Amino acid sequence: MSEWQDWFESWQLTLEVRGRRERTIEFYQRELLRFGAHVDVPPLRVTRDMIRGWIKFLLDEGRAPNTINNRLIVVKSFYSWLVSEGELVLSPAAGVSSPPHRGPDPDVLTDDEFARLLAATAGSDPFTRRNRAILLVLESSGCRASELVSMTDKGTDLRGRHIDVEGKGGAWRAVPISARAAEAVDRYRRTRSQLKGTPGRLWWGRRGTMTTAGLAHALHRLAEQTGIDIHAHRFRHRFGHRWLAGGGSEAGLQVAAGWSSPIMPRRYGRALSVERMLDEHRRVFDQGER
């Protein structure tokens, strides 16, 4: 195993240059060393059959296809790096497929649920204004929880209706927001001095600048108040559905949501796809019968 660890430490330098987060690198290390222990040969002697045998072993263990796919991504990335470094001519992981898996369709926050949440944030105190602004920003930008709490005053352009966020890998990008969201953020900032936070950061709270844990707590309180099961990702699901229902493209959704692959827009596209089909059918055929 020392040889696997040595190779990982070299790969780690490249991962750090590419901006991979510490937790991601730890996951890569754990899963690569697990794979190495299973095949029990040096990295440069691994074959395609060994990798396929490892996948079969994981299936026989009862591992979920999604879990296997995540582990296979690590192995494929490692061998792609070895090829790029000239250590191998071909990757033994090339052409190895993960088990077929279709995860559950995203749980989309409905129009009625969102209206009830907004009704619960109709007050004028700073906390209520903050929560209303957060709801509208999440719903109209599709940003992740970690991206929302990264927002700054400097990166907030309310007239241009976009806010800069720190995405995966530490890269910054602009996310769009609606006119209602921009108005709500402006109202919140006018009363924000009554809260506590780091100057320059957008979201403040009772004890200081909002964190992902603080966001989860705020949404949990709203869930208790309204009886609606909410978490930040449900707003991301709603964003994806509304984007496609409004005629937006999957390519545009991929850029707006900060995905590096078209796989996720397609998965989000499945959610409420029948509902969108029925709406489209009514527009096409009802119009023709008038």
Which properties best describe this structure?
290 residues; mainly alpha; DNA polymerase, domain 1; hpI Integrase, Chain A; 2 domains; 3-stranded antiparallel beta sheet; elongated
Describe the structure.
The protein has helices at 2-17, 22-39, 48-60, 65-84, 111-119, 126-141, 145-149, 179-191, 212-226, 232-245, 250-257, 263-270, 273-288, and strands at residues 156-157, 162-166, 172-176. It starts with a helix and ends with a helix. It has a three-stranded antiparallel beta sheet with strand order 1-2-3. The radius of gyration is 23 Å and the shape is elongated. The longest helix is centred in the N-terminal third of the chain and has 20 residues, at 65-84. Strand 2 and strand 3 form a beta hairpin. It contains 13 helices and three strands, in the order H-H-H-H-H-H-H-E-E-E-H-H-H-H-H-H. It folds into two domains: 2-84, DNA polymerase, domain 1; 111-278, hpI Integrase, Chain A (Orthogonal Bundle), CATH 1.10.443.10.
SSE arrangement:
Blueprint: H1 2-17, H2 22-39, H3 48-60, H4 65-84, H5 111-119, H6 126-141, H7 145-149, E1 156-157, E2 162-166, E3 172-176, H8 179-191, H9 212-226, H10 232-245, H11 250-257, H12 263-270, H13 273-288
Helix pairs in contact: 1-2, 2-4, 6-8, 6-10, 11-12
Radius of gyration: 23 Å
CATH class of the largest domain: Mainly Alpha
CATH A-level architecture of the largest domain: Orthogonal Bundle
Overall 3D form: elongated
Kindly identify the CATH topology of the largest domain: hpI Integrase, Chain A
The secondary-structure class comes to: mainly alpha
CATH superfamily of the largest domain: Intergrase catalytic core
Quaternary organisation: single chain
Whole-number tally of structural domains: 2
User: How large is the count of helical segments?
Assistant: 13
Topology pattern, helix = H, strand = E: HHHHHHHEEEHHHHHH
Percent of residues in helical segments?
A: 55-70%
Low-confidence stretches: none
The profile of the biggest β sheet is: 3 strands, antiparallel
Please give the alpha-carbon distance between the first and last residues.
73 Å
Number of DSSP-assigned strands? 3
Mean pLDDT: 86
User: Which percent range describes the beta-strand content?
Assistant: under 5%
Instruction: Give the strand order of the largest sheet, numbering strands 1, 2, ... along the chain.
Output: 1-2-3
